[in-house]
Structures are given as structure tokens and as C-alpha cells.
Amino acid sequence: MRLNKETLVAGFALFSMFFGAGNLMLPPLLGFKAGDAWFPVVLGFVISAVLIPLLGIFAHARLQGTMLDFAKKVSPQFSLIYCILVYIISIALPSPRTASVTHEMVIQPLLGINSWITSTVYFILVLFFVLNRSKILTVIGKYLTPIIFIVILSIICIGIFSTNSVVIGSSQFQNPVISGLLEGYQTFDAIGAVVIGGVLIISLQLKGGNNFEQNRMAIVRSGIIAGIGLFVIYTGMIYIGAAFNSAFDTNVSRTDLLSGLSLKTLGAIGQSFLSILVALACFTTAVGIVTGTADFVKGLFNDSQKAYLITAIVGCVLGILMGQFDVHYIINVAVPALMFIYPITIILIFLNVLPNKYTSALVFRSVVIVTILFSIPDFLMSIGVKKGMTSLLDILPLGNYHLAWLMPAIVLFIIVNTFFRNTVEK
């Protein structure tokens, strides 16, 4: 794989926009709970937080359009509704969560100021970057990402060499692979792939000078660079969490565990390094989300720059308002939305990566519809509607693992391609 400076910068920028608040906090606690089953947990987590997002970037490279193209084979109306839901979820949950994490782990311990001040200053800076989007790839990829990567690798490497004699405790998970897979939902990386991938495409197009094939290869290579970075960091952080699982209280919080790990590995300056890491990782993700949302709305209004500006401002104002909630509250609130939208997103990513001869309009419509139907029980369970849902999930394949939609989607995909391929439009 031949790499040039532009591809490396784009790859680092993509990694940085993926790597936000959840990506930093989730792996250590996951490893802490996984204990001696940390490797199976890594496998599950990597599937939903690395492999599927990477396929989402590949799908963008293939389409090189907008997010509307992801679901257009289902129907234009469905595609519009899906995109609106994804962008609403993105600016209402993961984007504000970055401000909340930054306040709780960085600003509050150091300065003790009100969360309103933190969120306001934070999203004013986000707005500045969004309105200067031509500089996003260069600034993030060239300057911010290397700092993030170096600090995380320092924690991982020092942690590995300082835990040679540590005995890792038993796992708290009955099914480590599934636990890792579902925890990967909370990174929002699959959704991030369809949102942030569009930012990468538009940024490359703004630079100009490349044709479709050159852009496709640049996007694929950038995605691979980002995927390798995510894999290394996730695996390392999960292992470190497992290696130190006897050094912290059983009920330790995500933020306390991350802070404790940085102090144990980086010593007295650990907190300062961690503060830089958290602020940068959160900030770059917020920039990517708001930019992607503004791009989408701009496209709906005939490339209106006014629509882009208004959306960016609204997204930042919403970030200020929602960012006042506790980070753990935001994570819990996100569960129902993820149980519904994540299966649809995963299916759309896979269908858009596969060759056209296997993904007719009928395949898209039937597989997406059945995915939605079989995701409803998990969604209802997540909002507290348990009557009848528990017994239903018990009889559905993989229902007890919150994956009741998976087998029906696969079976219907095979059936339609086997018996109806020659009778429908390609």
C-alpha cells in the first residue's frame, strides 16, 4: 500500500475524528470487567468498533456521494428519514458527550468552574473549526492526532511493562465476545463512519486535483490507517484495564479508572497528559460530527452556505445545552437509540460494500425491513417495555444476546439472492 503525505494526514485525521470520548473511556473499564477473558472481549469490541466502521469508510469510498446514498436503494423517503435520525442522534448524544467528558475529567478537577462555561467555550472553538472546514484535515491530521496517539501509546506501553508479574482476575462476563460487541455500540463508530466519512470525501474534493479513482484509493488507505490505529489502541487499553483489575475497587467508574491508569503508568504527570488527551480526543470528534451534520443540511438546501452556517450554530448550541448532563446519564440515554439505529446502520454498511449483483433494490428493501422489525424487541426492552419481550427474545436466534435481527437479515439476504436475483432490477 503506497502512502503519501496527504494520505497519512487524512488517515490520522480520520482516526482522530473517530477517537472521541466513548472510545477513550469504554475500553479500560471493559478490560477491567473482562479480566482473564480480555482477548475474547477484544474480538467482539473490534468487530463493532473497528471492522464495521472500516467497512463504512470503504462504502463511502465506493459511493463518493452523500449519506443519502447509503439507503437510497430502499427508497428516497426512507433514506431521508434514516439520515435525519442519524444526524439528530449524533448531535444530541455523542457530540455533547464530548463536552461533558472534557468538563468532568479535565476542566472541573483543574479549574473547578461551572459546566456552562466549559461547554460554551468548548463549542465556540468547535464552531470556529467547523466554519474553517478546509483546514480540518490539515490541522487535525498533522498536529492533534500525533499528540493523542503518543500519549495513549505511552499509557499502554508503560502499563504492559509494569504489569509483568500481575495476576489478572476472573471475568465478570458470561459471554465475553458478545459483551465486547455490544459495548462497541457505545463508541458510535459505525454511525461515525457514515457521518465522518462524508466529511473526508468533501474535504478531499475541496482540495481538488484528484479523479474518482484517486479519491477512492485515498479514502480506502486513510480508512486502513485509521482502522489500524483504532485496533492498536483498543486492544492495548482493554488489556491494560484487565491487567490492573486488582488495583481498583470493583465499582470504579469509567473516569476514575482512566485517571487511575494514567497516574499508575505515567506517574505524577499522568493527570496532565490525560487531560490533554481527553480534551483533544473529544474536541476532534465534536468537530467531525457538527461538520458532517452541517454538510448534510447544506446538501438538502442546494449547497446553501447559509444552511451550513445555521446548522453549525444550532449543533453547537445543542451541544452546550445537552453537554450539561452527566456523562454516564448520556451513555444510558443513548442505549435505546443505539439498539434501534445501530442494526440498520450495520446492515446498510454491509450492503453498500458488497458487489452490486448481490444488492438489488429488492435485497436492500427486504433486508432492511426485516432488520427493523427484529430490532424492535431490543428497542422496547431498552426503554423498559418488558412484557412479552423477554419470552419473544428467548425464542429468537441470538435474541438473548441483543442480536435477534442478525439471523433473519442473513437468511433473507440469501433467499432473495438465490430465488429472486433474475426477476428484479439490479
Written overview of the protein:
The chain is an all-alpha fold and 426 residues long. It contains 17 helices and no strands. The protein has helices spanning 5-18, 21-34, 38-63, 76-92, 94-111, 115-131, 136-161, 176-183, 189-207, 212-243, 254-266, 270-300, 305-322, 327-353, 361-382, 389-395, 406-419. Helix 1 (5-18) packs across helix 12 and helix 5 (94-111) packs across helix 6. The two termini are 32 Å apart. The model has no long low-confidence stretch (mean pLDDT 83).
Offer a concise description of the structure.
The protein is 76% helix and 0% strand. It has 426 residues and is mainly alpha-helical.
Search tags:
0% strand; mainly alpha; 426 residues
Counting DSSP E segments of at least 2 residues, the number of strands comes to 0
The helix/strand order is HHHHHHHHHHHHHHHHH
Helix-strand makeup class: mainly alpha
Detail the poorly predicted runs. Answer: none
Whole-Å distance between the termini? 32 Å
Kindly report the average pLDDT value.
83
Describe the sheet with the most strands: none
Regarding quaternary structure, how should these chains be classified? single chain
Share in helix: over 70%
What is the tally of helical segments?
A: 17
Rg, Cα atoms, Å: 21 Å
- What percentage of the residues does DSSP assign to strands (E)? under 5%
Shape: globular
